[in-house]
Design brief:
Blueprint: E1 4-8, E2 16-21, E3 24-31, E4 42-46, E5 58-62, H1 65-79, H2 85-106, H3 112-118, E6 119-121, E7 127-129, H4 133-148
Antiparallel strand pairs: 1-2, 2-3, 3-4, 4-5, 6-7
Length: 154
Amino acid sequence: MTALTRRRSDNPHRETWHIYLDDVRVGTIGERAGVPVDVEQWGWSCGFYPGLHPGQHRTGTTETFEEARAGFEAAWSELLPAIPDDAFAEWRHDRDWRAEMKAKRARGEKLDSEIHSTLRRCVCGETFDEWKPDESYPHRAHIYASQAAGKVRW
């Protein structure tokens, strides 16, 4: 594995850094939002999901960025040896799956769960997508006739 890298977030309202190991975002260091001025202004979190259980994550607050960075690095050094290799693969699989779903949506495609839930089989034996009027209208007469005869319940 390679060294940790950090990338500045695009949040213009407060300084936040995302921490990566290779391509996996493993934590964050940033200014805390909405806290009183007399409490620690910086926070850090260490861990990622999916891949780790919530109880494995570490968090902390400090006065300065340098202290937050040191706190993160100490927690990461303690956590890293306990992380199984498949945790990183699980995170990458989830990331890739989400990107694929986003791309399908952008292309106007239905997700697999939507396709299966909207396909119907007419009493005439044909399968059609009930979300597509041009496919479903021809079968309505068949379905209504069967319902009226008490042969099928829709």
